[in-house]
Design goal:
The protein has about 160 residues and is an alpha+beta fold. It has two domains: about 60 residues, no CATH class; about 100 residues, 2-Layer Sandwich (GMP Synthetase, Chain A, domain 3). The protein has a three-stranded antiparallel β-sheet with strand order 3-4-5, with no helix packed on it. Strands 6-7-8 form a three-stranded mixed β-sheet, covered by helices on one side. α1 crosses α2.
Length: about 160
């Protein structure tokens, strides 16, 4: 098994590859293991026993039986910003009764087909929710707290909208 990282690049573009046995993965704070099941299906596990199945769409050789890797980026963004919003609004003593986040993304046509545009739509329900509190929570999530959004925002133009229902 060969491990390649950006740190392995040396002078003149030469790449030094190290066997996995020389790299301590446990020294990284977050580690997941991804194993191939069959076809284009994989299962990912963490050290706490959580797991998720990943598959490609039929048009990309899979069965479409699970989220694709790129869909999981959108899931990660929606859940990351959602956790921020709930946490911030609860600290502001807002009485939330429901949160739904719809995340949509547009990808470029050339490989590696990164997201070029991502839109996050927040739909919130609650008792007497203050518009200003919601705008503040969204701004804090986007500008300060959501690491997934900060990562995706490196390649994609991010936008958002919200509705209090």
């Amino acid at each position: 098994m060969i491990h390649i990282s950006r740190l392995d690049v040396v002078n003149a573009g030469e790449l030094v590859m190290k066997p996995a046995s020389e790299t301590k993965l446990s020294s990284f704070p977050s580690v997941v293991r991804v194993k191939w099941l069959d076809g284009m299906r994989f299962v990912a596990n963490d050290d706490k026993g959580h797991s998720i199945v990943i598959d490609a769409s039929r048009e990309h050789g899979g069965e479409g039986s699970a989220f694709s890797p790129m869909q999981l980026l959108l899931v990660a963004l929606g859940s990351c910003t959602g956790m921020d919003i709930v946490n911030i609004l609860q600290k502001q003593r807002q009485k939330l009764t429901g949160v739904e986040i719809v995340v949509s993304g547009e990808r470029v046509s050339d490989h590696p087909r990164v997201y070029s545009k991502v839109h996050v739509e927040y739909k919130l329900k609650g008792e007497n929710l203050r518009d200003k509190a919601l705008r503040t929570a969204i701004r804090l999530s986007e500008d300060k707290y959501c690491s997934v959004g900060a990562t995706i925002g490196k390649t994609a133009k991010m936008s958002h909208s919200y509705a209090i229902q």
